């Protein structure tokens, strides 16, 4: 009996040891799987973050459309004025295929910026002015933004806008004055802007209004954003003079100096990331 009891006790000990060993092995497997799951989640979050950086927000897509309009307008003027004639026509055809009604589109969005209705229509009214819906089907990815930024850098490196401003200024007409000029009258007051130059001022006023409206909406440059926005809204209500030509150039220079476009890009990234976080990630609700 004692021998049998000892054998039974030994067998029980062996069984317990085996169970402990199996439990330990199972625990190791669980730990390993848990680590892999955590690693997979971390990798997924990293991939999601990368993907998010490649996606354009609605405002970013809006900006792509407007910058295509800018490129279309200035290459069209180049072609018309004989500037960079070796490449102007080709560039005009390329960019106008995306934005054939550049002036109208920018003036339209400028009006919405003045009215404070930019956020009322996420698809943007000026998109309806594009030649074909397929033209903007690729606007939702970073490649379209990179493309327009390259185009703008090329425009700047060739000093296209400077050449256009000079050519437009040379096309100004002397405005006939009734009677003698009053004492103290500025010589510029006797100059009449050409139709192209007036359009250019309107185009840039709309552009500046749009960017300052967005800056205000995103609390960028809070100390001056509203003041600048109101200034450009008021400017659009008055007849265009040679002074306005100088003012819009100063305004564009200020935008670049303050890095407003870069700050808006950063703001759109934050908004996009917040939106995605609020909708929840595939692994966001799991422990």
Describe this structure in words.
InterPro entries: SCD2-like (IPR040321). Residues 116-136 are annotated as: Disordered. One of its GO terms (biological process) is cytokinesis by cell plate formation. The chain is an all-alpha fold. It has a domain at 56-171 and 192-275. It has helices at 2-54, 58-81, 88-96, 102-115, 142-157, 160-170, 195-217, 225-235, 242-258, 260-279; strands at residues 173-174, 191-192. A two-stranded antiparallel sheet has the order 1-2. Helix 2 crosses helix 6 (160-170) and helix 7 (195-217) crosses helix 10 (260-279). The longest helix has 53 residues, at 2-54. It is elongated and about 120 Å long.
What's the helix and strand layout?
Elements: H1 2-54, H2 58-81, H3 88-96, H4 102-115, H5 142-157, H6 160-170, E1 173-174, E2 191-192, H7 195-217, H8 225-235, H9 242-258, H10 260-279
Antiparallel strand pairs: 1-2
Helix pairs in contact: 2-3, 2-4, 2-5, 2-6, 4-7, 7-8, 7-9, 7-10
């Amino acid at each position: 009996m004692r021998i049998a009891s000892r054998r039974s006790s030994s067998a029980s000990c062996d069984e317990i040891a085996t169970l402990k060993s199996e439990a330990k092995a199972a625990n190791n497997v669980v730990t390993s799987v848990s680590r892999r799951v955590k690693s997979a989640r971390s990798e997924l979050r990293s991939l999601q973050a990368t993907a998010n950086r490649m996606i354009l927000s609605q405002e970013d897509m809006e900006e792509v459309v407007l910058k295509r309009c800018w490129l279309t307008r200035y290459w069209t003027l180049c072609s018309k004025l004989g500037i960079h004639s070796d490449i102007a026509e080709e560039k005009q055809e390329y960019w106008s295929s995306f934005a054939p009604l550049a002036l109208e589109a920018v003036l339209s969005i400028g009006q919405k910026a003045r009215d404070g209705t930019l956020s009322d229509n996420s698809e943007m009214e000026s998109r309806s002015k594009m030649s074909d819906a397929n033209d903007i089907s690729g606007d939702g990815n970073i490649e379209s933004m990179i493309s327009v930024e390259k185009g703008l850098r090329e425009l700047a490196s060739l000093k296209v806008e400077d050449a256009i401003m000079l050519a437009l200024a040379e096309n100004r007409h002397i405005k006939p004055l009734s009677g003698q000029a009053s004492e103290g009258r500025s010589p510029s007051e006797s100059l009449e802007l050409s139709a192209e130059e007036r359009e250019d001022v309107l185009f840039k006023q709309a552009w500046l209004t749009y960017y300052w409206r967005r800056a205000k909406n995103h609390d960028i440059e809070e100390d001056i954003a509203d003041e600048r926005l109101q200034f450009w809204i008021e400017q659009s209500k008055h007849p265009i003079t040679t002074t306005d030509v100088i003012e819009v150039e100063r305004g564009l220079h200020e935008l670049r100096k303050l890095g407003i476009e870069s700050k808006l890009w950063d703001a759109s990234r934050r908004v996009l990331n917040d939106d995605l976080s609020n909708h929840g990630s595939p692994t966001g609700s799991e422990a």
